[in-house]
Amino acid sequence: MGTRGHWVVTGGAGYVGGHVVRALHRAGLDQVVIDDLSTGVAARLPRGVPLVRGQVGDRDVLDACLPGAAGVVHLAAQTSAPGSVRDPLAHYRANVADVVTLTSAILDHGVDKLVASSSAAVYGATSGSAQLSRHTETDVLHPQSPYGKTKMIGEMVLADAVASGLSSIALRYFNVAGAATEVLADRKVGGLPSAVLQARRTGRPLPVHGLDHPTPDGTAVRDYVHAVDVASAHVAAVARLMDAALGASVYNVGTGVGSSVLDVLRVTAEITGGPVPHKIHGRRPGDPSHAVADVSAIARDLGWRARHDLGDCLQSAWETTGGHLLSRSHRTLASVS
Description:
This protein has 337 residues and is an alpha/beta fold. The protein is built from ten helices and 14 strands. The longest helix is centred in the N-terminal third of the chain and has 21 residues, at 88-108.
């Protein structure tokens, strides 16, 4: 994938960012990474990819990196829905104010291409028969958390910037899990897969919130997408923007396959050779029962489909965070190194 100029990648030393930078590096793109390393790890970057330590909201940092750039991949963000309830203003600063600062700087430097991370959190909870349907990009958005609201507003900023000449693609990630290598692994215990593996290692029971969801087994259903596949979606989005000006587009990034909490526990037991201790609790208010992506749009427009399943996500997470494979044959993931 040849291009004139480099691509600036914000948050490129993070969990998702590290996978994206390596995938873009393999595709032949020159990159400059901006990351403050508050959660990122410099060792995730391929050799030869320069790192500028700084924040996206710092205009001086942006002015140093954007001259001559072909485009920007914006991954830096605050990403915790529960954390956004405790500290909403931090999420508005990172996910709204910094997006405005970045967009302004991009346009001031004559850059007209931007790929941005968004989230399935923009959809929120649905009711009635819609609860078990797949989310499409044209769904009415009902974000339930400040995090989801900030991601929705960030998409709105990019849509309005079309009038100033910006072409953008926002990628709505569903539940990202797994890792290509140990250095790229997610070390935080945040989402369900990492919490399940932590429970399996420590023996401390995992809280399972609700057995009364309107789903086949009564537990909440999510769409788990491998970090390697998320990275390849960014490569596809960059390639599309390099082909033509598009205005502002949004795409779901998922597998289109839902897995319940009990599915995750069952597959984890198969991979690790033993059961995951867990304890049933009541449902959490506002917790969606079913969040699965309709991925027909990204397949049609960008030619992208996920290649890994739930087992791949959990196996790679187990292996790259110090686990031992006990009962499932090793399956080699596509390399992004």
